[in-house]
Structures are given as C-alpha cells and as structure tokens.
Amino acid sequence: MSSGGPRSRARSTGSCRWIHRSRVCISTVRPCPGAQGAPSNYKRSGPEPCDHAIGRSRGGLTTKIHLVCDGRARPLAFVLTGGQVADTSVFTCVLDEIRVPGRGQARTRPDRVLADKGYPSKKNRAWLRERGIKATIPERADQIEKRQKRPGRPIDFGNEQRERYKGRNVIERCFNAVKQWRGLASRFDKTARSYAAGIYLSATLQWI
C-alpha cells in the first residue's frame, strides 16, 4: 500500500507491531459484476484499458481484489486485477506490497502465510522458502494425486496445520468489513485508481 494508506495510521498509533510467529492471510474477492464500467463496455469484445482493472470472466466483466491482512483482520496490502487473472499469479505481488513500519527498516516478511487452495503452486512455495516464510496452504485434489504418483516428500498438512488453517477466517472478516461499503461491494468506479482509493479509505478506517 502507499504511504497514505493504513500503514501510516499504524505508524502514528503504534498499533502495528509484529511479534514472534507473526502471520498474515491472503485471499481474493470479486465485487458484484453488474455495476462495473460504463454500460457500453459490457458488450465490447476488445480488452479493457489497463488502468481499469476489469476483465471478462464467467460472471461477465469483473474485478478481483487480492488482499492480505494481519492476524487481527486488518488490511496490510492489496492488488487489483481483472476478473480473468488467476489468484496464484498475483500471490507474490501482493506479499511484496507489505510494509510494516517499526524501528529501523520496515518489515516486509511475516513468519507464516495462510492461504486457500487457489494459491498452492510450486513457484509460490519456492518463493516463500527462499524468504524463510512458512506456509499453511492446502493442496488441491489434482496436486495431491500427481504427488502420489512420484517420489518426494509430501506437503505437511496434518492436524497441526489444519488447526492453524482455522485462523484464515480473519481474511473473510476483513473482506466482510470492506464490502460493507456499497461502492466497494458493487464497483461503480470506472478506473482502478478511483476504486482503489475507496479501498484505501475503508482499510484505513479498519485500523482506527
């Protein structure tokens, strides 16, 4: 997020403190597609301008909010994309946006990331390992099936991981707070910049 977002509020209040075993949760939500863009854009077959963050998917013209929050359901960073963009492809982009102010250099790496089955790619897991970030991300059924056909250490998702995964409810609560604003739940802004401004404001209020 930019310096004008919730991180600035956290800096001024001192409420944004990372402790041992800090963790963040990441997920994606789509605003209601019916109100996005100008009416004439819906039938246009060409791509939307890049500054709109609107794309055509099965639900029509939609936008995705890829968001990461802390363990208290407070937004840390988000990225907007068109509805056709795969969640897993934006995973590292969202986490790269994290900046938690403190003494000295801002912290950018949590101890653990919780995410759903939309994110467990080899690339994402390798990215987390390189940075020393632990992951609680369940595999999809097709990934489990492929892994069973070849040797190698399986992904650990036993009882301890399942218990940790229950903490992912904070991202749903975070999105629920964001979607209380009608203009965010149903996108009326044509440009991504205007829509993002509303998300920044909503996120800032969650930190107050």
UniProtKB/TrEMBL annotation:
<feature type="domain" description="Transposase IS4-like">
    <location>
        <begin position="51"/>
        <end position="196"/>
    </location>
</feature>
<dbReference type="InterPro" id="IPR002559">
    <property type="entry name" value="Transposase_11"/>
</dbReference>
<protein>
    <submittedName>
        <fullName>Transposase for insertion sequence element</fullName>
    </submittedName>
</protein>
<dbReference type="GO" id="GO:0006313">
    <property type="term" value="P:DNA transposition"/>
</dbReference>
<dbReference type="Pfam" id="PF01609">
    <property type="entry name" value="DDE_Tnp_1"/>
</dbReference>
<dbReference type="GO" id="GO:0004803">
    <property type="term" value="F:transposase activity"/>
</dbReference>
<dbReference type="GO" id="GO:0003677">
    <property type="term" value="F:DNA binding"/>
</dbReference>
